[in-house]
Amino acid sequence: MVVLNGAKDCTEMKNWKSELKSGLKEKSDLESFFQVDFPQLDFKTLIPLALANKIKNAGPDSVLWKQFLPSENEKSSEGLKDPIGDEKYNRAPQLIHRYFNRALFLPTSVCPVYCRYCFRKNELGTKKLFTPDFEKTKKYLQHHPEIEELIFSGGDPFILTTDKIDFYLSNFKNLKYIRFHTRTPIILPSRFDQELLDTLKKHRENFDQISIAIHTNHIDEIDLEVEDTIKKLGSLGITLLSQTVLLKGINDDPQTLKDLFLKLSSLNIKPYYLHHPDQVKGGMHFYLPLRRGREIYLKLRDILPGWAIPQYVIESPKGGGKVPAFNPESLDFSGKLIGKSGEISFY
Ligand SMILES: *Cc1c(COP(=O)(O)O)cnc(C)c1O
Ligand code: SF4
Fold first, then answer.
1. What's the N-to-C CA distance of the chain in angstroms?
2. Number of domains composing the chain
3. Is the dihedral of CA 59, 110, 232, 102 positive or negative?
4. Single residue among 41, 71, 101 that ends a domain in this structure
């Protein structure tokens, strides 16, 4: 197969577009590259070649393999197709406005990789949340001056071309804050080429803050190439935050999380969110009970300084938004979760 023969060259070329284009998508590509049988699934798969090589080196028991390669477990019918239920806040095209002063902007449903535990895994193929009508989106923002921050999410916003990112940032100049939620610095560090860095630098002074919340779940995801990219972003005056999903079999013990959060802190990334996993159909093998998460978080508060500890949050279903998941006042970790307005959301 042509793709495989060219694998090494592509990795060395480090051109992000060609890395993505030649990424592994089909069951047959995966099987010949990894020399393992994979199940036939309806969920999308994509592994950029440089990442595929890292996964292959790490092997089948690694956290890289388990997070990104398809597994039989995804056939389970347990879980919800849309565990978040944020559609009702989809108030303008590609916009989710749930909180008063900030909104999510979803310019794409494409990612540089498809994480097997993703809460949007049943939606990413569909158009519902992602159909563009930029004039309408802009009008909505004009009529809602209370929105001070736009959070680029998706999909993964850094999958967009640099021209497109430049276009959006130019159009959002009257906002105060810009944020990106992304897994790209980990998955495809070559994406942060000089052209993109220059564009971010150019726009930096138009806003009070540009921040990038990097989605990373384990210290093994952070190699020297990733570190190098993170340092470049930091040097532009961009605020670096992290988001981590608590996942069974990946990072569900205090020591693993401690190693990750201290590593992030050493790279000037503020650990920001630790998300309790969502009960998503096809991803339930990564799910763990809230009680277990609370026990882990309690231990973390013992072994880490406050500045290295993210907020532990859970999405309350039916669009309730993120609420604190930890029950500090209660010794009973199986205690109920209290929603924003005081009502009990679920156990
Ligand atoms: C998480 C989220 C935000 C961002 O919330 P912060 O507390 O600022 O991190 C904004 N809008 C929606 C819909 C979200 O889910
Ligand atoms: S990068 Fe984020 S949106 Fe994309 S598949 Fe992974 S978790 Fe889902």
1. 50
2. 2
3. negative
4. 71
**What CATH number did the domain enclosing 153 receive?**
3.20.20.70
Peptide bond into 320 cis (omega under 30): no
Atom of ligand 2 nearest to the CA of 245: 7
122-127 mean pLDDT: 74
Structural domain includes residue 133: yes
Same domain, yes or no: 106 and 54: no
pLDDT, one tens digit per residue, over 208-231 is 999 999 999 999 999 999 999 999
Query: Which residue's alpha carbon is nearest to atom 13 within ligand 1?
Result: 98
Using CB distances shorter than 6 Å, the residues near ligand 1 are: 86, 96, 98-99, 102, 104, 151, 322
Identify the residue whose C-alpha is closest to ligand 2 atom 1: 183
Q: Model's pTM, two decimal places?
A: 0.92
Residue type, 207: F
Same domain, yes or no: 332 and 288: yes
**Pick from 250, 248, 176: nearest CA to 220:** 250
Domain hosting 49: range is 3-71
Q: How far apart are CA 279 and CA 84, in angstroms?
A: 9
Regarding whether 42 and 95 lie in a shared domain, the answer is no
In testing the pocket of ligand 1, which one of 84, 98, 99 has its CB within 8 Å of the most ligand atoms? 99
The separation between CA 11 and the C-alpha centre of its own chain, rounded to angstroms, equals: 23
User: With 80 as the cut, is the pLDDT of residue 102 above it?
Assistant: yes
